[in-house]
């Protein structure tokens, strides 16, 4: 009886790939890929290919699973997108409320800026927020009334605020420097991640082709034995 050796290993590999383990974790590169996919499929919405939002999530789900060998459901893709979209809008519209304080960095800011052209739709704040992001808040100088002895009149004295303004100014400068550094780092990481994703995809398809080729050879050998 003819022994097939490596051909049988190829068949086992094919079976393993068809029975992959569950993988539904949203890593940085998978989320970045999700945003890039949304840019593409959003422009196709309403076409024959993507008639509804439901089909959009399904198409994106298939693409992501094929690229990363994952097992996401369309609902996973939709929920992840809504979380990212909501987080970005909150990040964008609350920046004016936190002047002088370091905000938590949003890792997908550059990609979302490209998607919305730097101006996303309004974010709905919780009802208990007292400050609206559309309102420009200006602080008036603090004044106190001081009574002078022997007189019923009072004098308005302005409290110096130059020291406080200087601290706010320095904090704003440091904040802008940090944001610029984060943007440059995020941009570099994004390029690296996308290149790695492309390389992995090429390797994946090459491996699948090799497995298919070995599988075909095995079938040919079996047919030859039948003829003999």
Automatic annotation (TrEMBL):
<feature type="region of interest" description="Disordered">
    <location>
        <begin position="141"/>
        <end position="170"/>
    </location>
</feature>
<feature type="coiled-coil region">
    <location>
        <begin position="194"/>
        <end position="228"/>
    </location>
</feature>
<protein>
    <submittedName>
        <fullName>Uncharacterized protein</fullName>
    </submittedName>
</protein>
<keyword id="KW-0175">Coiled coil</keyword>
<feature type="compositionally biased region" description="Low complexity">
    <location>
        <begin position="141"/>
        <end position="154"/>
    </location>
</feature>
<feature type="compositionally biased region" description="Low complexity">
    <location>
        <begin position="161"/>
        <end position="170"/>
    </location>
</feature>
